[in-house]
Automatic annotation (TrEMBL):
<dbReference type="InterPro" id="IPR050300">
    <property type="entry name" value="GDXG_lipolytic_enzyme"/>
</dbReference>
<dbReference type="InterPro" id="IPR029058">
    <property type="entry name" value="AB_hydrolase_fold"/>
</dbReference>
<dbReference type="GO" id="GO:0016787">
    <property type="term" value="F:hydrolase activity"/>
</dbReference>
<protein>
    <submittedName>
        <fullName>Alpha/beta hydrolase</fullName>
    </submittedName>
</protein>
<keyword id="KW-0378">Hydrolase</keyword>
<feature type="domain" description="Alpha/beta hydrolase fold-3">
    <location>
        <begin position="81"/>
        <end position="284"/>
    </location>
</feature>
<dbReference type="InterPro" id="IPR013094">
    <property type="entry name" value="AB_hydrolase_3"/>
</dbReference>
<dbReference type="Pfam" id="PF07859">
    <property type="entry name" value="Abhydrolase_3"/>
</dbReference>
């Protein structure tokens, strides 16, 4: 089947964000290993917030293989989130996620357990999901050590990490796994089929476009057919899942699948807060000098605080 995508104008992009578009490094989606250094350089160029009011510790979760995590512990934290970085399942680690995991902890007041899950294409699905599954169990089992209520454990993440968070919520429901009280999904990658309007038409959007999304799914799936635990949008039953906050970006290929997933959750009786951010693109919350990006980060932290409090 040949899909002909039309040229889509990006009128209405936030001018503060648009000014940064020419500065993004070019990456080859066919060679994610080479792209990791560029991604790391871009991510770590962002300064972390003041960490004086929290403890930060690198730990190792026993598994096969062991999983590195970085734990952020604000004072008087009541709940925790298993936090999953973006990077199309092929890039990123606890170091590249450090500025954002720290901000989530600071804004939410929750313990953040940032997961260094295995990356594709060297480790295709289900390696990353198995790592997240092991960390989820570890967080629940060590809730007392972390100083949090085991009934207040959430999952969340950006982009590919948001897709992993949605997938682990499905797995926990299906396998009677640890109870997850909330899922925080920021521009999640949920559907490998790329049949939505935004997936078909956003062929030249900043940072992430159709070709990059397609390449990421190929690397992640490794030639195997997609299951709902790889691509949560394929799940036919979304009932019984935790309440969710879902954020989408206007000029993001994932936009329509994120909105559709939110609607399907609502139809299945799951409480959902959906925020579609106008004028933004995939990952643009990382441009912290932009006012809209500051609001996005603040809202993610506030949503997590609300979700853990409601439990």
């Amino acid at each position: 089947m040949i899909i002909r995508a039309s040229v889509v104008r990006m009128d209405g992009m936030d001018p503060e964000l648009e000014a940064f578009v020419p500065l993004f490094p070019r990456t080859d989606p066919a060679d994610p290993v080479a792209g990791r250094a560029k991604f790391a350089g871009l991510a770590t160029s962002v300064a972390a917030p003041d960490l004086a009011d929290m403890e930060v510790e690198d730990r190792t979760v026993p598994a096969d293989p062991d999983v590195p995590v970085r734990v952020y512990r604000p004072r008087l934290a009541q709940g925790a989130v298993v936090w999953l970085h973006g990077g199309g399942w092929v890039m990123g680690d606890v170091d590249t996620e450090h500025p954002w995991a720290a901000r989530i902890a600071q804004r939410s007041g929750a313990v953040v357990v940032s997961v260094g899950y295995r990356l594709a294409p060297e480790n295709p699905f289900p390696a990353a999901l198995d790592d997240v599954w092991a960390v989820l169990h570890w967080v629940v089992e060590h809730a007392a050590d972390l100083g949090v209520d085991p009934a207040r454990i959430a999952v969340g993440g950006h982009s590919a990490g948001g897709g992993l968070a949605a997938a682990v919520a499905l797995r926990a429901r299906d396998e009677g796994g640890p109870r997850i009280c909330f899922q925080l999904l920021n521009q999640p990658g949920l559907d490998d089929r790329q049949e939505s309007w935004s997936a078909r038409n956003f062929t030249a959007t900043p940072w992430m476009d159709r070709s990059k999304v397609a390449a990421a799914w190929r690397h992640y799936l490794g030639g195997a057919p997609a299951t709902p635990y790889a691509a949560p949008a394929r799940a036919t039953d979304l009932s019984g899942l935790p309440p969710a906050y879902i954020a989408s970006a206007e000029f993001c290929p994932n936009r329509d699948e994120d909105i559709a997933y939110a609607v399907r959750l609502l139809e299945a009786g799951v409480s959902v807060e959906l925020h579609q951010w106008p004028g933004t693109f995939h990952g643009s919350q990382a441009i912290l000098s932009a006012e809209v990006s500051q609001r996005q980060i603040a809202e993610l932290g506030a949503a997590l605080r609300r979700g853990l409090a409601a439990r």
